[in-house]
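Let's practice the habit of predicting before peeking. Look at the sequence and jot down your guess about where helices and strands might fall. Then scroll down.
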Amino acid sequence: MIRQMGYIDIHGHVSAPPALYAYQAGLMSARAFHGKGKIRASDEEIVNAAANHVQRLKDYNIDRQFISARPFSMMHSRKPEIIVHWFMEAVNDVVALQVAAYPDSFVGIAALPQNAGVGTENTLAELERCVVELGFVGCVINPDPGEGDYATPTMADEYWYPLYEKMVELDVPGLVHAASCSNPRESYSNHFITEESIAVMALVDSTVFDDFPTLKLIVSHGGASVPYQYGRWQAQRIQKGKENFGDSLRKMYFDTVLYNKESLELLFKIVGHENCLFGTETPGIGSGVDPASGKMMDDLGPVIESIDFLTAQQRDAIFRTNAEKLFTRWAGIGCAA
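Done guessing? Here is the structure:
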């Protein structure tokens, strides 16, 4: 019996064994004094750490999920810089191992060894290794590697151009996703919203997409606050005689990691179904029961299916075909018997 075609989830994170984070703790405490070392876990332990994750995807009718490092663990503000490289390499190797073990469930997305106060040239070798050697199809970009220090130039700045050039050369999209935050005035989740909003507003007022017309950027968490504040930004641009704000937004793409129907409806109306890609971040912050519905908040497929103004073709674009078009290095179709 052929089941209903499932979803392509472009926003997920790795489920790793505790040994990965023990390795990280050792790197941070020793600050490279003891060298690179390695994760003290067998391949079998690393693969088995994803078993429940894979079952969750099956339960949610997700055919493929694109996975990357857990954002809170990316340690981009840590010094010396070399320990960030070592840990990102280790995470990417864990992802590659799980992708190889579960090819019908996972696709790899590269974590980059960004570091506070260091140019993006430091990310290029690992990005190329992940794409060329490990078969990954995209990368995660943290717009604030200082993790709350606000010292890194915005994503409109030429600081980012070496990374953009390499992404265009390799033909890989970037998922704009903030990471940890050391600023006591912000919570972890609030930092996501702040940094991703800043990234969007910087990009729409920049020449980035003129300089890199084939650059593909996907903003996490539904574009953060930007769709909700659309009217204010549109009014400002009208006053300044600039390009329509909606046209500027549609140079980027947005995932659906929002967890409520009303916000998803607004996102689709503001940026259009053509620029939205299905994402759940499951298992993650949304993996709890909504008291109003009694259902898991990150089980977003049925929520989007229930939006009545979307046609069947538009839903299919959000669930599958937009991802297939954008992630051109991904050879899989994602359908299963």
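How did you do? Residues 7-16+47-326 form a domain with the TIM Barrel fold (CATH 3.20.20.140).
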